[in-house]
Amino acid sequence: MNSDKLPAFLSVIIPRLLSKLTETKGITEQEAIQILYNSKLYEALEQEETKLWHLSVESLYSLLDEEMKTGIITFPEEQ
Known about the structure:
This protein is mainly alpha-helical and about 80 residues long. It has four helices and no strands.
């Protein structure tokens, strides 16, 4: 993917991921935004070469949940 298209792609993924986070954790949207934007997952999502943008929202949420619980992320082998 051209790195110029990544911001547009993230603009689709991020709201869905935030929604999933608020629904499953019972937190406000503002809290979800703080959690996501301060996460290692978000940092990795911003980097086109990680190829995380191709994962489903469910998969991305699982990675974020793992990071929230353990402080680490086990990235899929095939990215």
